[in-house]
DNA sequence: TGCAGTGCTGTAAAGGTTTACATTTTTTCT
DNA sequence: AGAAAAAATGTAAACCTTTACAGCACTGCA
C-alpha cells in the first residue's frame, strides 16, 4: 500500500542508499540529486518506516515513563516536561502504570528488554528487588533515571526537588510567625519523599530549638482522604499544635476540609501548609501556603539526563540533579492565636 | 550482545521457525520440542525483539493518545483507563501533546504514518483541517477514535459523556431548589463540550420556563483563572443570579474563590455547581456540587473501540458511545435566599 | 503394500531500512 | 594533460523476526 524506499529510488533513478542519505544526511548528496529525490518524496508523500529504521539502527527512538499510578494528576506536569524535552530530540514518550502487567504476566519493565524503549524514566521510588533484577537482566541498568522519587538503595541517576530545603523554608516561615508547636502530617511510611521531608522538618525544627515527637506526626499517605483522617486525630489531641506542615498539598486540603467539619478553621485556629503547589492550591479556600516544586522542570531535567545516557555520554551512577523549591505564602497560615 | 532467535535455534537444535512457533503458537509444536526450546529460552533469558517482529508483522503494537495539553491533570484518569484496557491487549500507550512538533516540524500525527502507532485516540476536539488531511494521507482515518471531546464536523467514532443529560440533571436540581435566575459560566467559545453543555443547560432551563440570556453567560475557558475573572463580572451585575452552573469544576472553584474576595460566599449568597467531578472537588471548601463524568470509563471505552478498529472489526464511521453522568450533591449549592 | 491424510519441522523469502565498502565521478594540483 | 585526492553514488549485507511452502515421518485405511 504505502511506498517504500525502493519505490522512491526507482522513481527518482537513484539507489536506495542515495535516497536514504538524502533523507537523513542531505549534505552527503549533490544538490541536484537531492532535489530530484525530494521532489519524488514529496510528490508521493513518502515517509520512512520507523520500524524498519529502528530495527536497523538498533534504537527505538522512544523512552518509557513508569508511574505508580497513571490516574494520579500529580504526574501530568512531569509528563509535560518530559515530553517537551523528548520531542525536541524526536523521541517518543511511552507511559505505563507500574501496577499493570502485560498479558503474559511479565512486568512492564520487560519492554526495555524487548527493545521497545531506549530507556526508562521511573517516577516510582518503590523499586522492588525483582524490578532491579529484571532491569539488570535487560542490560539497561545504565539507561534509567529516576524523577521526583528515587530508590532508597541508590544506584541510579536521579532528578529531584530539594525536599529538605523545602521543609526548612516551611519551618522557618512558621517559626518566624511564632509557631512553637508544629505537627507533621505524613505521607506513606516507606516513601522516600516522606522520609526526606520529615527529616528535613525535624532538622529545621531543631535549628529553632523545637522538636517533632512522634505524637505530633499524623501517619498516612499523600491523599486527600489521609488528610481528612488526620483531622480526626488532630481534634482528639490534648495539646493541639498551632500549625501543621503536610507532606503534600492534597493532605493539607483533606486536613483543612476535615478540620472544618469540627469547626476548626485555617488559618484562624490552626495554620496549615502543604507541599507541591498543585494546580488547585492557589484557588483553594483558604488559598494554600505551600512549597512549590517545579514539576515541569523535573520532567525536563530527567529527560535531559536520560537522553545523555542514551547517547552514551557518561553520567555518574549516582548523579543527582536537585531542583530548587520556593515558598508560596498564601492564606492558610497566620500567626498563632 | 543480546541473543537472537538464531542463537536459540542453534542452542536447542531446531530451526528458527520452530523457535518462533514455540513462542507464539506453542500448540503447533511437539511437547518435547517445546520443552527443549523453552528450556534454552529461559536459561538465556531470551526475549523476541519487538522491532523485528513488528517490522515483519506490520504492526506497531502501540497506540497514540493525543492531548491538547499533557500538563492538564484532567486527562490523567482518562489515560489510566486507556492504559488499563490496552495493557490487557499487550498494546503500548504513546502520549503526545498536540502542540509539540517533531524536530522536523511535522505534526505528531505523522507518527501514524511512520508506522510507529497502529491507531490514535484523540482527546482534542479542536481538530484542524490540516490534521484531518494529514490523517487521510496516512491511510489511518479509520483507526482513530475521539474521547471526551470530538470534532464538530464528525466523521470519526467517538466516546463521550452525556453532557446534555448532565446539564439537565444540574438544572433540574437547581430549579428544584427554587432557583429561577441561573447563570452559565462558559468554557472556550469554540469548544464542543462547552457548546454542548451550554445547549443542554438552555434546553433544560426552557423545560422549566426559564431562559439563559447572553447577559447571564460568563465567557471564558475551563481554567481556574477564567472562573476568577467571571467573579468580577458577577459582582458588577445589576441583577445577580442566585445560582451559577459552570462548564467545569475548575471554573467553579475559581469562581467561588474569586467571589469570596468580594465577600460573596457559596452557597450562602449564591449556589455554584461544577462539571467533571475532578479529584479535589469533594474536598474543596465548600465541597463542590457537580456532575460526575466517568473519566476512567471514557478511557477504557475509547481504547476498546480503537482496538476493535485495529482488529479490523467494522465500526460505523460515526459510532458514538455515550457514557452516563451523575449528580453529586455536596455543599456548594443551597436554596436561594 | 500402497496411498491419503495428518502433524511437525525446516528452508528461505519477505518486511524496509541503514551503512561499510567498492566503484565511479568530479575536483584539485602540478 | 595526467595523477592524486575528494566527493558522490551504488551494491549488498545486516538488523531479527514471521510465515508460506515444501518435505518428511507418521497413522489409518483399503
From TrEMBL, chains A, B:
<dbReference type="GO" id="GO:0003700">
    <property type="term" value="F:DNA-binding transcription factor activity"/>
</dbReference>
<dbReference type="InterPro" id="IPR046335">
    <property type="entry name" value="LacI/GalR-like_sensor"/>
</dbReference>
<dbReference type="Pfam" id="PF13377">
    <property type="entry name" value="Peripla_BP_3"/>
</dbReference>
<keyword id="KW-0804">Transcription</keyword>
<keyword id="KW-0238">DNA-binding</keyword>
<dbReference type="InterPro" id="IPR010982">
    <property type="entry name" value="Lambda_DNA-bd_dom_sf"/>
</dbReference>
<feature type="domain" description="HTH lacI-type">
    <location>
        <begin position="3"/>
        <end position="57"/>
    </location>
</feature>
<protein>
    <submittedName>
        <fullName>HTH-type transcriptional repressor CytR</fullName>
    </submittedName>
</protein>
<dbReference type="InterPro" id="IPR000843">
    <property type="entry name" value="HTH_LacI"/>
</dbReference>
<dbReference type="InterPro" id="IPR028082">
    <property type="entry name" value="Peripla_BP_I"/>
</dbReference>
<dbReference type="GO" id="GO:0000976">
    <property type="term" value="F:transcription cis-regulatory region binding"/>
</dbReference>
<dbReference type="Pfam" id="PF00356">
    <property type="entry name" value="LacI"/>
</dbReference>
<keyword id="KW-0805">Transcription regulation</keyword>
Amino acid at each position: 500500500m504505502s511506498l517504500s524506499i525502493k519505490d522512491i529510488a526507482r522513481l527518482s533513478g537513484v539507489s536506495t542508499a542515495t535516497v536514504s542519505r538524502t533523507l537523513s544526511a542531505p549534505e552527503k548528496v549533490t544538490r541536484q540529486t537531492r532535489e530530484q529525490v525530494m521532489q519524488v518524496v514529496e510528490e508521493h508523500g513518502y515517509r520512512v518506516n520507523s520500524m524498519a529504521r529502528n530495527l536497523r539502527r538498533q534504537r527505538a527512538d522512544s523512552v518509557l515513563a513508569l508511574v505508580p499510578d497513571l490516574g494520579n494528576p500529580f504526574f501530568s506536569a512531569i509528563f509535560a516536561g518530559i515530553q517537551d524535552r523528548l520531542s525536541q530530540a524526536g523521541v517518543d514518550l511511552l507511559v505505563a502504570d507500574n501496577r499493570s502487567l502485560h498479558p503474559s504476566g511479565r512486568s512492564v519493565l520487560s519492554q526495555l528488554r524487548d527493545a521497545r524503549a531506549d530507556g526508562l524514566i521511573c517516577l516510582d521510588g518503590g523499586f522492588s528487588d525483582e524490578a532491579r533484577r529484571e532491569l539488570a537482566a535487560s542490560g539497561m541498568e545504565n539507561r534509567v533515571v529516576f524523577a521526583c522519587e528515587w530508590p532508597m538503595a541508590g544506584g541510579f541517576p536521579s532528578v529531584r526537588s530539594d525536599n529538605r530545603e523545602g521543609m526548612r523554608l516551611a519551618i522557618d516561615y512558621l517559626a518566624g510567625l511564632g509557631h512553637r508547636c508544629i505537627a507533621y502530617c505524613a505521607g506513606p511510611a516507606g516513601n522516600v519523599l516522606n522520609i526526606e521531608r520529615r527529616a528535613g522538618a525535624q532538622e529545621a525544627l531543631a535549628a529553632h530549638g523545637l522538636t517533632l515527637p512522634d505524637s505530633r506526626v499524623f501517619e498516612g499517605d499523600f491523599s486527600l482522604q489521609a488528610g481528612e483522617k488526620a483531622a480526626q486525630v488532630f481534634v482528639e489531641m490534648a495539646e493541639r499544635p498551632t500549625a501543621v506542615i503536610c507532606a503534600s498539598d492534597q493532605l493539607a486540603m483533606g486536613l483543612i476540609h476535615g478540620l472544618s467539619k469540627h469547626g476548626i478553621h485555617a488559618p484562624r485556629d490552626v495554620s496549615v501548609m502543604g507541599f507541591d503547589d498543585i494546580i488547585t492550591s492557589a484557588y483553594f479556600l483558604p488559598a494554600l501556603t505551600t512549597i512549590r516544586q517545579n514539576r515541569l522542570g523535573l520532567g525536563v531535567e530527567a529527560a535531559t539526563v536520560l537522553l545523555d545516557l542514551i547517547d552514551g555520554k557518561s553520567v555518574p551512577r549516582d548523579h543527582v540533579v536537585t531542583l530548587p523549591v520556593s515558598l508560596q505564602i498564601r492564606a492558610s497560615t497566620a500567626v498563632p492565636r
